[in-house]
Design a protein that fits this description.
single chain, about 100 residues
């Protein structure tokens, strides 16, 4: 079953953040992620929208966790952690309605 990783954060150090996207994209590709949305100017319909909003699709929860826990991601993740604030990463399972 597909899962979605929903990411939101505010960039607090733009210079420090510069190497994050070039570092994370190859790792996402390695783990079969599909980038469904990536927006630096998302509109909040309710509440507060973080400066960066990303929605990733993985084929399985295992694939998503393998990406997040990949040792090669650790230094890249640290770039994000050091250069952002107000961050969250949520793993949400694909919705399957009741059988028809």
């Amino acid at each position: 079953m597909a899962v979605y990783v929903i990411v939101g954060y505010d960039i607090s150090d733009p210079k420090g953040y510069e190497n994050y996207v070039p570092g994370v994209v190859p790792l996402l590709q390695k783990h079969g992620a599909e980038i469904l949305a990536a927006d630096y100017q998302a509109e909040a319909l309710e509440g507060h929208a973080p400066g960066v909003n990303v929605v990733l699709r993985f084929d399985s929860e295992e694939a998503a966790r393998n990406w997040y826990n990949d040792p090669a991601y650790a230094p890249v993740k640290q770039i994000r952690l050091n250069s952002t604030k107000n961050g969250s990463i949520v793993l949400a399972k694909e919705f399957k309605g009741p059988p028809e």
